[in-house]
Amino acid sequence: MGLLVALAACAGRIPFLVPPSGGVEAVEGFGSASVQGEDAAVKGKFAFLFRRPGFGRVEAVDPIGRTAFLMIFRVDRAYFVVPGKKAYAEEAPEAMMKRFLGISLPPDEVLRLLSGTWTDSGAGSGWNVEQDELGRVWSGGRNGFAFQVREFFSGGGVPRDIGLSGPATTGRIKVLKLGFNPPSREAAFDVTFLRGYVLKTWPEILEIPDR
What we know:
Structural class: mainly beta
Radius of gyration: 16 Å
CATH topology: outer membrane lipoprotein receptor (LolB), chain A
Number of strands: 12
Shape: globular
Number of helices: 4
Distance between the termini: 21 Å
CATH class: Mainly Beta
Largest sheet: 12 strands, mixed
């Protein structure tokens, strides 16, 4: 889809980032993660795209730039794809995210976490967030899971370095490049290619060598 090609070259000084005044409907970027989740450990670089309502794509790359795995979120279903083995697993989005972050985190809340925009989360969301003296959300928690922003991008409350902790997770996410409200690309969330792949259970996915 061109996402990795467009983002893999990101480098240089920390950019000035301010969320658009009209709201954040989507985020796209490139980052690195070192997270020990409920069922698996994730460490490396990844490209991501999240779009309301409920769409997301995470593409992890190996040290030489090949796609190691994909996670595609489509409102009520999520797919973990291992392209090199022509295999995939399917679950509810919250269950899929919990395997990596240790919490049932839907795509729209990942969007809030990455953009630092929590004003629309609603009283019923269960999140307890705290702001610093500049009005930036620097920490938050829900049901034993917590995040803490270690560093912000210049210009506003957009997180650059996020620490994660909880009963089933520990780690950090560092955002190297981030853009708001990119043009819509439905192909990024298309899963028709999975017709040529083998559906496996999650335990079977974990048994795949070098996934």
